[in-house]
């Protein structure tokens, strides 16, 4: 009670003051960077004051409204409405700017290059028919001369056979006169399947396409064209991969777009060794353009292997490499996730593992032996069980005397997605301290069909847990480009368990889907700040505004706690700052920066 009264008071007072400054006096004081000559090098120190600063997502210490930044770090966090600050080095005047500050947000699971590529490809998300897909492809081809040649395939992402009424085929693309003969590779919404055109299929010599691929599926009904999971490895070598220059363009587009959403950093959930090298080169050589903090999980050239020659730890303020990504199974949408018991809507299958349990355990062992955090993609309850088995056996080796007071146990093993977990295994996660890396918008995208796949019992005890895993410091993210990267949509999905695009729950769940698993606003924000930081060994450094932390912050028009739940999903960030540099400023309709209230 008292806290919120203070909060309202400060809000009123500061907005009143800011209004006065902006309107009546135009500018009372100016923001003057203070330069200090230090043994030849210049250190810039600058202070910022806002109407409110939320230094930490849980504590609402609303008396704080200013901070000082030096060399990309916060060096002081303080409270000072409009008074002039003086210090020994000289005088610094600080303008109170309108806006409310949050710590910079992180996406705990995304794919940076793929997202950049997505921004430069055909958006098929939400398409409701094959005809709609063909029309989007035609529009793209018309506006991108040369697209679809043998060297420059048309790429797309976002189709879903459930919306199309069945699996698509190469013939469907070939039947369109405008698209006939073009090389195309279109990923399913969850990127676990890809749909290619006839010219791509024609690259295979007769008999080159095997009948079956272990851990994958070649769809043959109603016709050829779609390759899932491990079968995608047949297509990938044929695709003329973007070169480094093109990848640089993708990465810059991705960073810009992510900053727009309020993101200052992300966990890249699977980066090939050569791309890690590219990240290193670009971030070291073009620090001006590399504006996003990336925690990259190494993915060996050959999936689910140990590649010690590529296990190079690296750490700078903008790129950190010390983890590996392994894959236990596929996705729920295509019945690819590995279940203990068969699917409720397809009793003939319980999905498939991409790797067997003994290999998964051996790999986890090998990677943790070289000091890498092991992050396993696991969706189905069997995949999650095997991931936990693997972690347990690695921990037993690390801590032969038991887990209780084993100092070396700081492995922070993670399960990426952690979507469907048997209750027994949820209990084991707590015992072992396994971090769940959760995408709240996956829950709200899958809720329409999840119960059909899983049945009511598994759905209510195993699926898309959030609240009951809270003590494990969940990392929250979006899995962009699978879902949009906007963290406020993720926060909304976590808080309401409703779809952030429609504001709706599925039929029969209008008030939100299994809201017993919903998080509070603070808990959800934690997942995008402190949880993400902990999952990347960056606690105290990222996701918080305090002395010594990265000077990363986001400016909003209104304090978050003043927004209604429905406003939450539509939050538009005003500014994003990374390392004390403004990397995004929203423009109004006239192209002017939004400045004052
Ligand atoms: C697991 O897979 C590996 C590699 O594919 C294979 O060598 C091994 O025999 C398999 N183990 C079991 C128990 O199936
Ligand atoms: Zn992913």
Kindly list the characteristics that best describe this protein.
Urease, subunit C, domain 1, nine-stranded mixed β-sheet, eight-stranded mixed β-sheet, 17 helices, 25 strands, binds 2-acetamido-2-deoxy-beta-D-glucopyranose
Biggest sheet character: 9 strands, mixed
| CATH-derived topology of the domain at 110-238 | Diaminopimelate Epimerase, Chain A, domain 1
Assess the beta-strand content as a share of residues. 15-25%
Mean pLDDT: 89
Per DSSP, the total helix count is 17
Structural class by helix and strand composition? alpha/beta
Uncertain residue ranges: 1-41
Describe, in short, the structure shown.
With 597 residues, the chain is α/β, with parallel strands linked by helices. The two termini are 27 Å apart.
Architecture overview:
The longest helix has 23 residues, at 2-24. Strands 8, 15, 16, 17, 18, 19, 20, 21 and 22 form a nine-stranded mixed β-sheet that branches. Strands 1, 2, 3, 4, 7, 23, 24 and 25 form an eight-stranded mixed β-sheet that branches. A six-stranded mixed β-sheet has the order 9-10-11-12-14-13, sandwiched between helices. Helices cover 30% and strands 21% of the residues. Helix 2 crosses helix 8 (244-260). The model is unreliable at 1-41 (pLDDT under 50). The radius of gyration is 25 Å and the shape is globular. Among the domains are: 38-104 and 543-597, Roll (Urease, subunit C, domain 1), CATH 2.30.40; 110-238, Diaminopimelate Epimerase, Chain A, domain 1 (Roll), CATH 3.10.310.70. It has 597 residues and is α/β, with parallel strands linked by helices. The structure holds 2-acetamido-2-deoxy-beta-D-glucopyranose (NAG) and zinc ion (ZN). The site of zinc ion (ZN) has 4 residues, from loops. Residues 109, 111, 269, 479 line the site of zinc ion.
